[in-house]
Amino acid sequence: KKDASHGRLCFYSQEMESVYTSRRKRYIQLKNAIAKHLVVPLYQPIICAKTGHLQAVEALMRIKDENGNMIPPSEFITLAEETELIIPLGELMINLVFDQQIRWLNQGLHIRVCINISPIQFLDPSFLPFILSVMDQKAINPNMVELELTESLMLENLTQIKSDMDRLRKLGTSISIDDFGTGYSCLSYLRDLPVDSLKIDKSFVAQLNIDNPDEVLVKTISTLAQSMKLSSIAEGVESQFQAQRLQELGVPLLQGYYFSKPVTADQIQTRYLI
Ligand code: C2E
Ligand code: CA
Ligand code: CA
Ligand code: CA
């Protein structure tokens, strides 16, 4: 009996240890990715619903492991936020995306980029000076940049957030609210902050199912955006049916596997350089 309980305790602690070890491994991998610049942005097209033209691309972070495999954000963003490694990772990402934007420009491709910014990164006092100086140094047109922020940010000090957003907006950089409607925050921030567009979360788009479509949330967000003179972008568009319905519901911009999965910078170039 004693043995059994000992065995169970032992099993439990081994499990704890393996959680700890894999976290530790990820942490080391993140540090290594930052030191060796093993961050790779992929890009997903954002399409104008009316014309089908490319409106912008969203940059999505991947980390390369020692075998060259791409690790998706679901495996590292939470840990990176908890350890604040999201700040150097995010800075690396911004540098890479701006460099790519310049390379595209030199090829004759004018592509707007949308960059995801973690609340941890946005709230860090180094963020605003960092992004302003990088845009300046690399001669990036701030009009060609959009920052995607999540609603969880709006639970923080709105005065500071507003002043940072105002600085960016004055230069021409736009702000969109990512995963709109999933964040449990009070909608009044939309009145107070200089937001340009709402990204309709893919969980709502998924409810536009051809057999039994539930449109109420998509319709509500689209109407809210229109009445506040904001743009809106539907993410996670996977079918022609969804694309069609979203356009009918007045959502001007669409993004999802139906148009393209996230691809490399080169693939963007071959596809859109005509
Ligand atoms: P997100 O910003 O909501 O990005 C959309 C996610 O949906 C991406 O996953 C994208 O690949 C995926 N997706 C695109 N189209 C479809 C579709 O039609 N169907 C489905 N089911 N999924 C689709 P990904 O690339 O794995 O990124 C996951 C999340 O990681 C992002 O969600 C974002 O919150 C975060 N993330 C990605 N890159 C960065 C970054 O550079 N910085 C920060 N802070 N977060 C990032
Ligand atoms: Ca996003
Ligand atoms: Ca999103
Ligand atoms: Ca999302």
Automatic annotation (TrEMBL):
All residue ranges annotated as the EAL domain in the record: 23-274
Signal peptide interval: none
Domain of life of the source: Bacteria
Name of the protein: Protein-glutamate methylesterase/protein-glutamine glutaminase
Species of the source: Pseudoalteromonas holothuriae
Organismal lineage: Bacteria, Pseudomonadati, Pseudomonadota, Gammaproteobacteria, Alteromonadales
Parent-protein residues present: 420 to 693 of 693
